[in-house]
Structure formats: C-alpha cells, structure tokens
UniProtKB/TrEMBL annotation:
The gene is puuC_2. GO terms for molecular function: aldehyde dehydrogenase [NAD(P)+] activity. It comes from the Bacteria. Residues 1-52 form the Aldehyde dehydrogenase domain. Pfam families: Aldedh. The keyword Oxidoreductase applies. Its EC number is 1.2.1.5. It comes from Enterobacter cloacae. This is Gamma-glutamyl-gamma-aminobutyraldehyde dehydrogenase.
Amino acid sequence: MERHGEELALLETLDTGKPIRHSLRDDIPGAARAIRWYAEAADKVYGEVAPTGRANWR
C-alpha cells in the first residue's frame, strides 16, 4: 500500500469524491497501519476466543 499510495489515494478519491489530500493524508496511511497491525497480530493468536453474546453488548 505504501509503495502505491498515490495511486490508491487517487482511486479512493475517484470512488468517494473526497479531496485527494484526505486520501493521501488519512485513508491510505491509516489502512496501511491497520493491515500492518493485523499482520503482526496473526502470530499472536493462541486459540483463545473472546466471549461474545448479548451479555457483552453495550
């Protein structure tokens, strides 16, 4: 994503109509950080499952 950030930002801008500076400054770097975070977290899953259900809804 970082290597092709300008191209991705242009596509995001064409798709959403937002200003290119928002795509360049916020969307692409934010998406790259999120992907990196999840990629780094992948080897830290130890078979644990977080409890879910109505009791945990807010």
